[in-house]
Request: fold
Amino acid sequence: MTSREKVWRALRHEAGPVPVDFGSTGVTGLHISCVAALREHYGLDRHPVRVCEPFQMLGEIEDDLADALGSDCTGVNGRTTMFGFANEGWREWRTPWGQEVMVPDGFRVRVDAGGEHYLFPQGDTTVPPSGHMPASGYFFDAIVRQEPIDEDRLDPADNCVEFQRLAPEDIAHWQREFARVKGSTRSVTGGIGGTGLGDIALVPGPFLKHPKGIRDVNEWYISLVERRDYVHRIFAHQCEIALENLAEYARIAGDAMDILFVCGTDFGTQHSQFCSVATFDELYAPYYRRINDWVHRHTGWKTFKHSCGAVRPLMERFIDCGFDILNPVQCSATGMEAAGLKTDFGDRIVYWGGGVDTQHVLPFGTPAEVTAQVTERLAAFSPSGGYIFNTIHNIQARTPTENIVAMVDAVHAFNRRGG
Amino acid sequence: MPQLSELTAALAAGKRAETVRLTQELLAAGVRPQTIIEEGLVPGMAVIGEQFKRNEIFVPEMLVAARAMKEALKLLEPLLAQAGIKPKYTAIIGTVRGDLHDIGKNLVSTMWRGANFAVIDLGTNVAPERYVQAAREHGAQIVGLSALLTTTMPAMKETVALLKEANLPGVKVLVGGAPITQLFADEIGADGYAADAGTAVDLAKRLVGDAA
Reply:
């Protein structure tokens, strides 16, 4: 059975070996420092790792490492990064923590006297920076560049500049990417951007030189209460564009893709939600339903929803508006215990994640504690399929390599035992 | 003259313009600023805190109410300062070194300001020694540390250790943020952990011995 077949069995809720994902998306990957450490651990070729996602400083999982980890999934990458520069023209760069890595040519950083790092949108150092990595940090955060808000002049079009039809260079890029993965024995996850509704990492527009509209994170959340019509108009616009782009994307991808990453908007906090069920129904569900329905009518893809946090009260809604997969399944959040999630929703949605807690056990526990939690989660989630193993969100910097290896070993030992 | 209860209701509903208007009208009618805060605004924020704890409202509604509160305080705080009236307690707050996230920290800051605390907000990415320095300089009773990231939890531990080592008399250290738990707070020797902004108010008041 190929990795891709393994994944499809799980997606169809059929029993079998648990597939594993390390790095197929920007929310199921590893910090670049961990990637380098794992390459060293597995005795793979030593070279500076590529930063495949500069916002979170994720490292590229090359085929040799994917093989060593036993990963069953891979992804196609966008033409440009979260900071708007192209993923091309690789050169070496030394991180604040002293690691030699490869970055795209457009990765332009200014370092101040205190060691704070500032990254520029589209590599343009003549405009204000849009990313900030503290001297002691491990990844970037978006810098909020909010122009003064004049309520009478707010125009949703200002928040829609990033939602455009695919450009010829995008189409050429996707053609190359899908040619690269065609015939892959791993399952392939892709995405076009623009299908995520109000993803708070994207709202500040770190890829734009001069963002306009609502770009401050607090103001965005306030807009969900006070400027709901404005938000509706953004979502409606991006949905229209996304459906047109998806048709083009599907034509290019053909049968080379399995899973569509739809949206990374977090609806959960550690103990609660970011909105009520009623707000979800009114503001988000209609657009999600349109996108998911289109995908299911026109392609064989499964749709992937990422949302951190305590989202149990929204689970029925996620299912009802057509999502096939939930990630990262934050079991440490209130109401998100593995057994209960599996019992109540596990036959109707695929869990992709939940394998180990990246806030506590994986970074701070012992290898034995990691093994115990991974084994317990596999036992809870894997019966009758419907489960792809992944950590709860990306593996963070400073996570001990022995803990990551313990996790990998525990999954494969579980599969060897036959679950 | 409007009733203080109207102000409470406006704030609890997050109505910014109405909160500001009622505050102005109450001031114009001769109501003392501290009465407006204690009997109008504080009960409003208490309602918000409770509703949040009960999952009846969510972060966006909290932010809307906090913004209304801040605008009302903008009118009232200069008047209190002119009259030489200071908040009863002082708190230092900041997001720990290496961490740039501030939504939770800002909410707690606003809630504390509405609960008779002068709040010195050090911002984000705050070095451990700056908390110690600020606590000493301002004679604080409370120091609040926030962290959103797993990778900055060690900075929180380091900061708490430095604050304890500084042995500042009467200073209590509160921690919070997404990856923080009571267990972690206990491990690093913090005096309290708050899971949300409403709890942070209750906890700070309890730790300074304010039972009200």
Summary: Chain B is about 55% helix and 10% strand. The domain at 89-207 of chain B is CATH 3.40.50.280 (Rossmann fold).
